[in-house]
Predict the 3D structure of the following.
Amino acid sequence: MRWSLKNSTGRTGDGRTVAQMMSHDTVRLPFEPSTPGIARTRLAAFLTRQHASNEVIDDALIVISEMIANAVSHGVPAEDGAIEISWSINGDLLELSVLDGGVGGHLKPIDFDEDSLSGRGLAIINRVADRWWVDMSKGTRVNAELALTTH
């Protein structure tokens, strides 16, 4: 499986680069249990280059890991056997997105206790992210936002 990376660049009317206003990366990675680790490494490098705080990096890595793990556990790969993972900085927000080829289903956090072996992913995302939502118009895309400033 080959994976790809896209990075936005360019200039705005006031001379700033697009990267100074908004930076993003999109990767297509194998639909496999090892994918969260690969994505965490790439996201951590991206956020480090953007001078994000350690707290934001830690929270983002938790959220993206849970988003990908949920997709791999409950979703369907795209036709090419991959999953699309993207992150972007838009102003003071970090936006995360995971797209798989699945359709339908019901995604909402469930209650769990300390003995639960599964079912914690969306509850963790709900707790750590400032906002999250699901778009099922083309596959299943789970999106989350985290403030780049600490709370």
Residues 1-21 have pLDDT under 50 and may be disordered. The domain at 33-147 is CATH 3.30.565.10 (Heat Shock Protein 90). The longest strand covers residues 22-30. The chain has one domain: 33-147.
